User: Fold these one by one.
Assistant:
Number 1:
Amino acid sequence: MKGETETGGVRKTGIPSMKELRASPGYPGPELLARGPIAVIECVQDIPCNPCEAACRRGAIHVGNPITNLPVFYGEKCNGCGNCIPVCPGQAIFLVDMTYSEDRASVSFPYEFLPMPAKGDIVEGVNRAGEVVCRAEVLRVQKPKRFDHTAVITVAVPKELAMEVRSMKRLKREG
């Protein structure tokens, strides 16, 4: 698919491959992505972790027992609130809205660097490998106290890169 970076997989590179992501029970299919803002869970390793399950008040994410299960995503229950994004210690949950506009999608991701961007800034969108893949407009910066120091940044990107952009290039400090 256009705009996708293929890797050797998470065990070889630390970056999940598209094959691994599509096989993950947390990765939504095209029909769910087409309906509006929806969580995209890119957790492909059996690690002991489950804060996403408790963060979702609608029961759209289930880890269960044992805690090393991959999160199973029930996309029909997701309302795109994004509460799962800042609680993921692996920073592996994103929110994608393919309906944002005719030619752009929005992507929300966790961000823990300073300085923070501001709404309206144009930043460099990066893929899972940290490679710049596009320019992106900052739509929203969320950093309420309940996010525990993890901000959630939402950017608009070319629609064909919505499943590729997973963060932004770190901004340089002034002075």
Number 2:
Amino acid sequence: MTGPFSLARFSPLRKSAHWPDRSFRWMALLAVAAIIGLIGLVGWQLYSGSRLAVEKFGFSFLTSTKWDPVSDEFGALPFIFGTLVSSLIALIIAVPLGIATALFLTEMAPQKMRQPAIMVIEMLAAVPSVIFGLWGIFVLIPWLRDHLFQWLRDTLGFLPFFQGPIYGVSMLAGGIIVAIMILPIVTAISREILRSVPKLQREAAYALGATHWEVIRIAVLGYAQRGLFGAAVLGLGRALGETMAVTMVIGNRPEIKASLFAPGYTLASVIANEFTEATSDVYLNSLFELGLVLFALTILVNAAAQLMLRRLAGSGPGKVAG
């Protein structure tokens, strides 16, 4: 509005009327700056704590497979391998199962069944990690060792992933326990994303003569694919950092083996297991550097996921979801 009665002419009044907006804007900006500063502070602390190991081992720390506290020789490769493989196994199991569960709850389940099922899934997310670990040791591991692993070796033993002796504690057991732990997160987020698909999408597909399955596949999943990918990324974020339950079932052996029946080790597990046993500065700094590697790995994975989300937003049916 311009002219002799424009509000711009009464600038003191306009400023006093907008101070709540300005205050909120500054508070929001301060919150964002605090989060960024906290991330930077964590990264700096990890780097400063690992400086001795960085100077001694350099880049070879990431490529060495040797982890020998007696001779002060340390390498992170077995732990990076264990973290990535166990997380990948967890995603392969949890993402299809979580999306299928969310689809059932939003598209097919009877109304009376939905709320109890949702409550059970949400309760599963609240179970502490150590409880999953105990259950894994006394229930899951014996069953896997006596039944599933035997069946996998008998059926798919021609593949290197399912060869070798079966101990029970293994990389595959670690991946399965992480899959169980991230399943509620993937399911809950996927369900919210599928619920946000407009009814108009479904009605338009039905109007064109689509079957129920075609409506789900084209109108629902096609529309929500970007959000579902985001749900998988959030699940991966938890899988990478999961510690206690994995430590109790993965075997904790710093080796790189093709067989999923062999024990493994993850970045988070070795830090939790050996932090109190670090008797030398190099040992302690090496554990700090493992934490720095895990920190960087998480940021890289999330950055790659963001790039993939942008590519999905620019092509295919998921574009409309953005």
